[in-house]
Amino acid sequence: MAESELPVLAIGDKVRVKMDFVGGHVRMPAYARGMTGLIVGQSPEYPFPDAAAHGLHSARQRTFDVCFKSTDLWPDAAEEADVHVGVFHSYLEKVS
Predict the structure, then answer these.
(1) How many domains does the chain have?
(2) Which of these, 7, 36, 50, 62, is most buried using a 10 Å CB contact count?
(3) For residues 78 and 40, what is the distance between their CA atoms, to the nearest angstrom?
(4) Are 94 and 24 in contact (CB under 8 A)?
């Protein structure tokens, strides 16, 4: 999916990682699926690796640096910390 077809996201937005399950190589960490975090940074657009890894044409997408609380990702974590994950745009949905 091209960047222009995706919802507009920006630094400071609260987002949720989609619960998509796709076979094969993907760049969506399983531990982040369904989790909510805050966008704290973004990268330039790159070829979407889930398609590129299979030799398919891939639209360019940016990744967003999403900050999660460790205790949200792993409830039994010893102490709370910030966990930053680079997440491709098409994996994210804005939370109001």
Answers:
(1) 1
(2) 50
(3) 24
(4) no
Angle (nearest 5°) at CA 71 between 69 and 77: 130
Query: At 75, phi and psi to the nearest 5?
Result: -55, -25
List the chain pLDDT tens, one digit each, 96 residues.
Answer: 667 788 899 999 999 999 977 666 667 888 999 999 999 999 998 877 766 666 677 778 899 999 999 999 999 877 899 999 999 998 999 998
Which residues lie below 8 Å from residue 91, measured CB to CB, with a gap of 6+?
17, 18, 20, 28
Long-range contacts: 78-81, Cβ < 8 Å, 24+? Answer: none
CATH number at residue 67: 2.30.30.50
In this prediction the pTM is: 0.84
Residue 41 sits at φ, ψ, to 5 deg, of -170, 170
